[in-house]
């Protein structure tokens, strides 16, 4: 199952605004994705969530006002969080999929990231953003942000890389999470798609991802603590 795969272009074609038991497909070399751009709004702003990844609800603490512009793409977060807090984005899924099995993997990844944020930074306000919100507005977020890049193949292979950023326009730190990957760069500038920096060496079965998230979570927790602003 060992192969090399750079999965940026497939993300770009599936997500033009950004930015399970079978073996994975043959490796393919792909080009870079582009960050999200403003497009006519297709969904109304939502309220921050905690403890849920499917339906918005009010998070603990003072709620953030929606901060994305009316014309922003739906992938841009409608909340910038609060200073000292954490925003957990919906994962960057490539290629985009309505497959319930892939969405279940994305949900499991986001829920685990929320749990790691609460473990790493007890007492801080944690907001969980609904699908498809996965990036801060251009001005940045008040809170630090957490996300993930989830790549999957038609044959059922998956790779997950955690994305950890400080507040404001901080760069993203890439932390391998599930599957074996090489990083061309471990740190990516603010809002730039990380996929072009990730080379997959060995993919995990998508059906096994939820059970494999614990394997490298210590590295994710450490990255969260390092990026966290003073509280």
What does this entry look like structurally?
This protein has helices at residues 9-14, 100-120, 209-212, 217-227, and strands at residues 2-6, 86-88, 92-94, 126-128, 144-152, 157-165, 172-178, 180-183, 187-188, 198-202, 204-205. 18% of the residues lie in helices and 23% in strands. The termini are far apart. The protein is globular, with a radius of gyration of 16 Å. With 231 residues, the chain is an alpha/beta fold. The chain is built from four helices and eleven strands, in the order E-H-E-E-H-E-E-E-E-E-E-E-E-H-H. It has one domain (2-36, 48-227). Strand 5 and strand 6 form a beta hairpin. The model is unreliable at 1-6 and 8-67 (pLDDT under 50). Strands 2, 3, 4, 5, 6, 7, 9 and 11 form an eight-stranded mixed beta sheet that branches.
How do the strands and helices of this protein lay out in sequence?
Layout: E1 2-6, H1 9-14, E2 86-88, E3 92-94, H2 100-120, E4 126-128, E5 144-152, E6 157-165, E7 172-178, E8 180-183, E9 187-188, E10 198-202, E11 204-205, H3 209-212, H4 217-227
Parallel strand pairs: 2-4, 2-5, 3-5
Antiparallel strand pairs: 1-10, 5-6, 6-7, 6-11, 7-9, 8-10
């Amino acid at each position: 199952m060992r192969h090399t795969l750079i999965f940026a272009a497939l993300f770009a074609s599936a997500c033009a605004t950004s930015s399970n038991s079978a073996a994975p497909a043959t490796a393919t070399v792909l080009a870079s994705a582009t960050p999200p751009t403003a497009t006519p709004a297709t969904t109304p702003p939502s309220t921050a969530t905690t403890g849920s990844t499917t339906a918005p609800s009010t998070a603990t603490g003072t709620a953030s006002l929606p901060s994305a512009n009316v014309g922003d793409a739906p992938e841009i977060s409608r909340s910038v969080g609060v200073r000292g807090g954490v925003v957990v984005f919906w994962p960057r899924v490539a290629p985009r999929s309505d497959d319930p099995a892939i969405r279940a993997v994305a949900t499991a990844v986001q829920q685990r990231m929320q749990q790691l944020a609460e473990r790493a930074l007890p007492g801080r306000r944690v907001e969980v953003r609904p699908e498809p919100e996965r990036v801060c507005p251009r001005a940045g977020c008040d809170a630090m942000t957490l996300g993930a890049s989830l790549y999957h193949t038609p044959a059922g292979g998956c790779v997950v890389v955690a994305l950890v950023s400080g507040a404001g326009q901080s760069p993203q730190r890439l932390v391998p999470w599930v599957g074996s990957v090489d990083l061309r760069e471990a740190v990516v500038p603010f809002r730039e798609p990380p996929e072009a920096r990730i080379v997959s060496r060995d993919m995990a079965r998508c059906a096994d991802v939820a059970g494999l998230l614990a394997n490298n979570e210590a590295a994710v927790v450490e990255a969260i603590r390092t990026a966290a602003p003073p509280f």
